[in-house]
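Risk register update: the risk of archive-format incompatibility is retired. Evidence:
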Amino acid sequence: MTGFQGRHFLQIPGPSPVPDRVLRAIDMPVIDHRSAQFSELGKAVLTGSQKIFQTSGPVMIFPSSGTGAWEAAIVNTLSPGDKVLMVETGHFATLWQKMAMRFGLDVEFMPGDWRHGADPVAIGERLAQDKSHAIKAVMVVHNETSTGVTSRIAEIRKAIDAAKHPALFLVDTISSLGSAEYKHEEWGVDVTVSCSQKGFMLPPGLGFNAISDKARAKAKTGGMPRSYWDWEEMLKPNADGFFPYTPATNLLYGLRESIAMMLEEGLDRVFARHKRLAAATRAAVEHWGLEVLCRNPEEYSPVLTAVVMPPGYNADEFRKVVLENFNMSLGAGLSKLAGKVFRIGHLGECNELTLLGALSGVELGLSVAGVPYRAGGVDAAMKIFEDRTKANLAAHLKVIKS
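Archived output:
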């Protein structure tokens, strides 16, 4: 690829584009990670992360990918032979299930069609059947990045409680935290897993575990042999803003800035913006005559939209046309969805104009690639923004006049 001017459109559902403010924050000299200056940075990102997870409990930050954070959640709370209940919502739920099996867990994997989220009713019914409480944990992916389907975590918590089951509740928010509404403490989650390169708008390299008192107590008396991932070894120095081993210092500078950006906008506004972008994207897809992979409107992801290609057309070939002609990357279909869907990311530093540019690239790509579609999808997305902006202005003027 040569000859392109302007920025590359990175419209995959993570890693997401890194804002200039975050890039400038990362562009700092490395400091002594045992100094008072670093302690201030450490305390700032640890307390700031609590606000994003919406918890008063501990949040640990590991120098790792989200996969490392998955592992930390498992080895601190579960033991080989423990039975866990997981749900097949897509590619990443399947990968977490495979990891659990490698650690010797007895995984009951509730089957799914990759077009729906985890079913709270089915989970509640299964737990009600478990009279001996053999199931030690329920493990669910909040936003399935491979499908654009969001599971209803608060409802799952209610189902666990209704069944009066003591299982731990572990949730993957790798692609949702900071983009979709999520309340670790209020929703009664025991371990929330996340990472840096999605809603936090950072490069890859940080993994997170937010934990409940129940999860921490379990880790103190059980779990598996661990060193790098040990929560207690992390929490001891965290109390003073430090880490038990060399941290990713410059990524922490970026994390402090990304947290500041989200709090300046306000989390409610961040979540509303993502919902607005997602609605406009779906309006475009439906106008084109294409199909959104997610079947349940209650489970539409605000983070990404997975689009089903018409029969006889390959999504990867279409993505190649878009990349080579319009300098835009779209997400690929993963595992059994390979070649069948493409994914449009609309998370992190994304606004109306950015999204309209991305949707224009998709519509141009459909035309150039010869994919059957109905022109005007971008106009349909614009109409969503126009209507909502006019409604907001009308409400604002009404307040002023009153």
